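Per reviewer request, we include the raw input and output of the structure prediction for the construct analysed in the revised manuscript.
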Amino acid sequence: MNSFILRNARLQGELVDVLVDAGRIAATGHSLAAPEGLPEENAGGLTLLPSLVDCHAHLREPGQEYKEDIASGLAAAAHGGFGSVMCMGNTKPVNDTAAVTRLMLEAAARSWPDGPRLYPVGAATINLEGTQLAPMAELAEAGCIAFSNDGKAVDQAEIFRRCVEYAADLDRLIIDHCEDSSLAKGWIMNEGGVSGRLGLKGQPDVGEAVQVARDILLADYLNLPIHLAHISCRRSVELIAWAKSRNVPVTAETCPHYLLLTEEALKDYSSNAKMSPPLRSADDVAALRAAVRDGTIDCLATDHAPHADHEKETALNESPNGITGLDTALALTWSLVREGAISQEDLVRLWLANPAKIFKLPVNTFAPGDPADFILFDPDQAWVVSPQNLRSKSANSPWLGGELRGRVRAHWLNGARIV
């Protein structure tokens, strides 16, 4: 059962061997002895990383399979280095019934029986309308790992409070899309100098921060955990830092694009840089980079949001929000390691250790008994972001046509090779 030895892999700068027995790590070290006849794989000095966790992705199935389906989304995950993917519930129909949850899990088992593992996130409210709680107990029993209204804010504080309490009773978290929908309704991008020059309606950063503040105060009052999705601005970071200084039970994520791009990416009206929340200022990028280093931001997520070409190739005000991310996230994050903005240890903490801890997912630290979930990564392999080089069905990436460095060369889950 999934037993072999991987030789000459570079783990934290040192060449090591990894002995895998029945899908588990048996030993990690130098020049390991192996039972006679045990299959061997030679890593050739490639970088060894544990499989990553994406705690925020949109896989579009059911209902929008022309953008993405679970098979293609998990293909992007597998080749992008992700062994666990949490998929949001804004499907058509919305994942607010056990039948939809089971459909998702069955599609994953059918298309990728050895993983990546799919963890559905159920809707927090019925049809994401923010007025009536979804049947969370039914959804949890069917396999939902958390609940969220992602894509839409839960504006009513009383409803949101009940969501948090109900989820906690089920030992689940609420993941909140932090946006005050009344602030700059109909926005296209960040409110700032670029929106002024382009003559486009912008969303002020307080549109996010007001909701972050509400959630922090509720988490403090209820003493119940809340996870804050795709944080994009300094104001939110400062509020989260304040909350953590008071031991308020909040956790937060951001995405690689908020660490690498600013609102300037939209200066040529590029719809592939249009997302929610919007790209912010250089000052916000600096604050977020500091926050992922010092732990104010707990983890990274892709917010993988595929859209078809015909949807994105429209006027900016008509184009839907969102970019793809599963194919490119590791290479983009490694660019931050390469420039010294974060360390390799930070990368593993942000993409695996913390999200796995927050959502109670499998984690590989390369200790004996850990699941044999790992990738071989070539940090120097250059590749062009193109539809042909992406496993996702959609190519709505702000890096489309550009060159990235870093590519997954092999991927094992529970000792089974999936790439």
